[in-house]
Design goal:
conserved putative lor/sdh protein from methanococcus maripaludis s2 fold, alpha+beta, four-stranded antiparallel sheet, 41% strand, six-stranded antiparallel beta barrel, Elongation Factor Tu (Ef-tu), domain 3
Length: 343
């Protein structure tokens, strides 16, 4: 949607009241709406493209596991705020604990073998230095030490792998946020890769909109654009401009700080993209006459009489509208409806 915005102040819509006597001097009763004649002039209007999108959270994660087992505890519920590292779900890991014990025993055995091989090698080295041991004995001792070292490193690797898998028994929050979906309850059976809980951080939102290539030429990373989330004003910082997935379109990604949590993640959002400027006519919205779908103003004619003229207008911000047709520069309009006898 295109929206016109005033670039110059509304001072260009000047009231042609010079020389008119004050209301008291003309005998107007108290409470009577004073009329003013507004001289219509061209002004510079900034054209805005209103691109619609969704304000999605920048960080959102669906937690899973590499284990296969039963859920023993679910410590959170949907809508609950959690801290980074907080425990969310526990999974039965007794089989992994048994494998961990086996791996620890393997590491202890490998360490003992390495210690023995190292001591034996040190003795053979000393004897070889005194010519009391043959070269073949030294080579055999060195080879035994290398095998023991390799066995120790392999045992430690297996232990580390088991410990890494064991860590998936405790599902913890990767960052501070809110639980938005709980997929399991205590007693449920989970498989590797199955979703367990979804957490999202709504402190920053990303608005993504698709526009024509011509509308992104002046948009650079870091630019600040006005946005609306849930019809509330916000400032969005452009994260990047990239080609859209299909068609001759580009996607603008812009970030909105939501630290006070003013906006709900996933809410409808609008990004206001500037598209240059043009000359046009702006009028205060308060002086418009509305009858059903018709919009008009009282225009002062050549003989000084005010006549109702219907207009085509477009909404603009700041309590003003842009006149698309029905008026031209130099026309004079009344700020309030004239009395019946004055029409």
């Amino acid at each position: 949607m295109l929206r016109s915005r005033m670039l110059l102040p509304l001072l260009l819509l000047t009231a042609a009241c010079q020389g008119e006597p004050p209301a008291a001097a003309t005998g107007e009763a108290a409470g009577t709406v004073a009329q003013r004649t507004i001289l219509v002039r061209d002004t510079v209007i900034r054209t805005i493209l209103e691109a619609s999108g969704v304000a999605a959270p920048v960080r959102e994660a669906t937690m899973g596991t590499k284990l296969m087992g039963s859920v023993t505890e679910v410590l959170v519920h949907e809508g609950q705020a959690v801290a980074a590292g907080e425990m969310l779900v526990r999974i039965d890991s007794r089989d992994v604990a048994a494998k961990s014990a086996q791996a620890a025993a393997g590491v202890a055995d490998a360490e003992a073998m390495y210690t023995n091989a190292l001591a034996q090698t040190m003795r053979i080295r000393a004897l070889y230095a005194d010519s009391a041991a043959a070269r073949a004995q030294l080579d055999e001792a060195e080879a035994g030490l290398a095998r023991a070292d390799a066995g120790l490193r392999a045992a430690r690797g297996v232990s580390a792998e088991v410990d890494a898998v064991k860590a998936y028994a405790d599902i913890r929050a990767p960052f501070a946020g809110t639980i938005t979906k709980r997929f399991v309850d205590p007693g449920a059976f989970v498989a590797p890769g199955a979703p367990i809980v979804t957490i999202q951080d709504a402190s920053r939102l990303r608005i993504s909109v698709s526009v024509a290539p011509a509308d992104v030429r002046a948009i650079a990373r870091g630019a600040r654009l006005e946005a609306r989330v849930e019809e509330q004003r916000a400032t969005a910082v452009v994260e990047g401009v990239v080609p859209a997935g299909g068609g001759a379109l580009y996607t603008i990604n812009a970030l909105v700080d939501n630290t006070p949590h003013r906006f709900l993640p996933g809410a409808a959002a609008t990004l206001l993209v500037p598209r240059g400027s043009h000359a046009g006519i702006l009028l205060p919205e308060a002086i418009l006459i509305r009858e059903g779908d018709l919009t008009g103003v009282y225009v002062v004619g050549a003989v000084g009489r005010a006549e109702l003229r219907w207009l085509q207008v477009a909404r603009a911000d700041g309590g003003v509208v842009e006149v698309l047709s029905g008026l031209r520069a130099g026309d004079r309009v009344e700020s309030a409806a004239p009395a019946t006898g004055e029409r």
